């Protein structure tokens, strides 16, 4: 095939990290008009007395190391600490309809919000208002609803434990459990899948375990972009000679080789450290087939070894003493045919067996995974089969071994721990009753998809968002955007302007809050908040910068303001709690006893670890056993019998943080200055008579397009020939969200199937049409 030069598409040959990382940070800082604020901020990231990096939830080496350089963190911090401001003057100059035409990048690029604003339908603009007027109007709006279940309370995962706790308290006293949450779109398959199998919906490892593992499996996550500090850990593991096995349809550079900006030797000589020893380019959605293939081999090898008088390949003592359900798993694996495993995974039998061998030979294995496993219609089943694999050799609950879901937002795990859940337990009802003297219903509320459905159907009339960009993050904008316009009341608590804020209801409020980097003073006393990372470590975070505007309030103060105005007969001393966050922590401790001695322990360097039963082989439940869980089949719904159908996954570029688009490059994938790309396999392109750089249309089909008569398509993007398995294709999130029907989600966890969308790709009907960008 003659290779055409496509503007902005190159073959990136370098490692992850290295000088490119430093250059990229310099660019972002420049773009954000550095005024010294960012650099001051960067020195305080993840220091014992600094703030928690808002970039990701990867833990810090005891939170005491000197500043660990991370491109992702540097971007997140400078994006928040920017010198730019979206002032009332800015809002006076632009109607919302006008702003709607702006790109997501341009909207957030206006900088930090400075004043509480209220929507004025007559002029289609946000106008400044006072905090007290805003609170009163919001309170009146919420009280006017016929039933509390007609309001939705969304949380995004940057919210601190203190703010999240107050928020769930307010919502429960108000009377609903409608807690749509960003984790419903993220690791919900973990929160739902793992408790049934190991008794807890969290990871079981600590950072120390990575120093002792003998093999590491990485399924469906991209640390080079999304958790760059993890590359340091992977690099140490690789240097110890420990095999790292990557399972990912795309060859992600961060999983291949890394030059540590921390290592002057590597930086000066341009050397890099190889990461993955073996890279399995599984087909999208083929992971369960691979996992079942590995387990099938392990059972067979075990039988052979036992017959020869050996002690077997499985950990029989562990299985007998700690688990139930192995017989069901055996039967399921016996019924699973190699031919199907090979077809669905797209991998050779010898490769699958080799992976199983590495697993079997390692004394202690850690398995990490991310969105490539959870965001499928079978996300929960994926999670449970990974747990099965780990249980077969007792790889959970001992040093150097365990399962490690890699969380996204820096406090998404903590928010759940302190009560942001649509499925409250009787224990929570009792604890709140005991602490505050009010009761709330046990009935389940709405998760993210259910909340949008309720809004679509007119069952919910108000939406309050503590951060995030729900309308853009969730699937199906064609349903979501118009539905949200029909609301009576919308409240956004945010740092920067985004598209969700441009969908006004009858009444809409945009309330600007302090960010992590900023000094939070209450009654003249500096406050700190706390967060929980991916490994259940809780630690304090204290911002030091002068707030972006004198009109900002902290998230806890805003929540308390809304609560006071909404709940005239409240049982909670909102003002007292906000005056001293230590008191909020005392209350968290009284509602959640696992936070025992919270205020003292969080002051210790590095904070403390919350108990995780499975880490010490306490599996909970009446029988105190971990469970092998069977899910028959290999997710055949992904075997596109219909000729011509490809499976699309949606991924993050290197220059974005979820819906925040920092820039238009995706350095490690060779993309520069554009986002209108679809990564395709060369044979799939040939079959469609496409060449590299051709304009294409992508149309969702089958279950993704679901029943509604909406055509789900993306037009005029370009086809990029890429190293990805046949039948699999990828594009960026959120550009791809319009391809996912709201009803296309994992039935167990509700997680939208963002990563397995059946699509057809054809040459663009209008080849001159410009793709989005
Ligand atoms: N810089 C930056 N950092 C971030 C974020 C960000 O947007 N930008 N987001 C934060 C958040 S909220 C989250 S949840 C995390 C997300 O971090 P990741 O979990 O790394 O998220 P994704 O970019 O969605 O990438 C998922 C990976 O899964 C692979 N994949 C796709 N489909 C499949 C599949 O079927 N099987 C397998 N095995 N792999 C598959 C993709 O190729 C990709 O490498 O990162 C957090 N950190
Ligand atoms: N197709 C597709 N869709 C996806 C995904 C995917 O992989 N593919 N991933 C999903 C995942 S994993 C997630 S987590 C969701 C993310 O969904 P969200 O969490 O809703 O989205 P974010 O883009 O992280 O939110 C960004 C906004 O948060 C606000 N913000 C930033 N910092 C703060 C703060 O400190 N306080 C407050 N109050 N506001 C703040 C800013 O206004 C910013 O515009 O998207 C999901 N959607
Ligand atoms: Mo996430």
TrEMBL record:
<feature type="domain" description="Molybdopterin oxidoreductase">
    <location>
        <begin position="112"/>
        <end position="494"/>
    </location>
</feature>
<dbReference type="InterPro" id="IPR010046">
    <property type="entry name" value="Mopterin_OxRdtse_a_bac"/>
</dbReference>
<keyword id="KW-0411">Iron-sulfur</keyword>
<keyword id="KW-0500">Molybdenum</keyword>
<dbReference type="Pfam" id="PF00384">
    <property type="entry name" value="Molybdopterin"/>
</dbReference>
<dbReference type="Pfam" id="PF01568">
    <property type="entry name" value="Molydop_binding"/>
</dbReference>
<dbReference type="InterPro" id="IPR009010">
    <property type="entry name" value="Asp_de-COase-like_dom_sf"/>
</dbReference>
<keyword id="KW-0479">Metal-binding</keyword>
<comment type="similarity">
    <text>Belongs to the prokaryotic molybdopterin-containing oxidoreductase family.</text>
</comment>
<keyword id="KW-0004">4Fe-4S</keyword>
<feature type="domain" description="Molybdopterin dinucleotide-binding">
    <location>
        <begin position="646"/>
        <end position="757"/>
    </location>
</feature>
<dbReference type="InterPro" id="IPR037951">
    <property type="entry name" value="MopB_CT_YdeP"/>
</dbReference>
<dbReference type="InterPro" id="IPR006657">
    <property type="entry name" value="MoPterin_dinucl-bd_dom"/>
</dbReference>
<protein>
    <submittedName>
        <fullName>CbbBc protein</fullName>
    </submittedName>
</protein>
<dbReference type="InterPro" id="IPR006656">
    <property type="entry name" value="Mopterin_OxRdtase"/>
</dbReference>
<dbReference type="InterPro" id="IPR050123">
    <property type="entry name" value="Prok_molybdopt-oxidoreductase"/>
</dbReference>
<keyword id="KW-0560">Oxidoreductase</keyword>
<keyword id="KW-0408">Iron</keyword>
<dbReference type="InterPro" id="IPR041953">
    <property type="entry name" value="YdeP_MopB"/>
</dbReference>
